[in-house]
Amino acid sequence: MAAEEAHVMTASEYIRHHLQHLQNIKQKSIIDFSVVNLDSIAVSVILGAVFLFLFWLAARKATSGVPGRFQAAVEMMVEMVDNQAKANIHNAQSRKFIAPLALTVFVWIFLMNAMDMLPVDLLPLLWQHGTADPHAYLRVVPTADLSTTLGLSSAVLILCFYYSVKIKGAGGWAHELVTAPFGTSKNPVFAVILGIVNLLMQIIEYVAKTVSHGMRLFGNMYAGELVFMLIALMGGAAAMSLSGVLLPVGHIIAGSIWAIFHILIITLQAFIFMMLTLIYLGQAHESH
Fold first, then answer.
1. Which of 54, 74, 204, 249 is deepest in the core (most CB within 10 A)?
2. Which residue did the predictor score with more confidence, 217 or 242?
3. Residue 13 binned pLDDT confidence (cut-offs 50, 70, 90)
4. Which residues contact 274 (CB under 8 A, 6 or more apart)?
5. What's the pTM value of the predicted model, to 2 decimals?
6. Is 164 a catalytic residue?
C-alpha cells in the first residue's frame, strides 16, 4: 500500500491518465456505443446553462439608450452571426431558426473550447478530492472528445436532411440525389448507371462533410489539450534537472505564450464550426 502511494507517475502515465474520460463502463473496443463519457456530457450541459443564463441576463438588462459593455458585446456577437446567416441562408423563414442556432453553436462551442484555458490539473484534482479517489478520471474539454464533435456535426447533417426535404420536397430531393452531380441520360441503361453513381457520390459527400466537420474541431482541441500537458511536463522536467529553478519560469513563459495563442484558436474553431454549419444548411436550400 505504501509503495502504491509512493509511486510517481511517468510522463506517459500522466498523459494517459489525463486523456481518460469518466465513463459509465470501461471501454472494451475502439467503437463501443454502450460507453458514455459522463464528463463531456456534464460539462457541456453546465456550459449550455451558463450560455443561456448570460444571454438571458443580457436580454433582461438591455436598454434602448447607450448600452453597457456586456450588452454591447452581446449585440455585436448577435449582429455578426445574423450577417453571416443572411449571407448563407437566403430564405428569411429558415433564418428565424437557423440564425439563433448558429449563435448557440458559436457561443456554446467557444465556452467548451475555453475550458482548455483552465490549469491542466485543477478540476481533475478537485474531482479526485471530492470523490476521495486519487485515480478518478475527469476530462473537462468536451470538444476534445470525438463523441461530442461528431454528435454536433451529425445534428447538422440531420438538419440538412430536414431542410432539403422541406425546401425541395421529398420527391425533389430524391431526384437531386440521383441526378447530381453528373446529371442523367435519356437512355434508360445509362440513366440507371448514372443514378447509382450520383447516389454514391452524394452519400460520400454527406459522410465526408459530417466527419470532417467534427474531426476538424476535435483535432485542434485535442492537440491544444495535449500541448498544455506537455508544457506542464516540461516544467517538471526542468525542475528535475535544475533544482526547480525553471519550474515557475518554464510554466509562466511557455504556458503564457501558448495560452495567448490558444485564445485565438478556441475562438477561430468556434467560428469555423458555426460558418460550416451555415454553409451546409445553405447548400441544403439550393438546387443542384
1. 74
2. 217
3. confident
4. 81, 84, 102, 105, 106, 109
5. 0.91
6. no
Nearest Cα to 184, choosing from 173, 168, 196? 196
Q: What span, in angstroms and rounded, lies between the C-alpha atoms of 91 and 68?
A: 33
Quick one: which of 106, 111, 140 has its CA closest to 123?
140
What is the average pLDDT across 75-82? 95
- 270 in Cβ contact with 162 (< 8 Å): no
Clarify whether 212 is annotated catalytic.
Answer: yes
**Known catalytic residue: 139?**
no
3-state helix, strand, coil in the chain (%, to 5): 75, 0, 20
Cα gap 171→165, rounded to integer Å: 8
How many whole angstroms separate alpha carbon 213 and alpha carbon 156? 9
> Per the residue annotation, which of 40, 44, 164, 220 is the catalytic one?
220
Cβ-contact 43, 145 below 8 angstroms: no
Residue type, 37: N
Q: Which of 212, 241, 256, 287 is catalytic?
A: 212
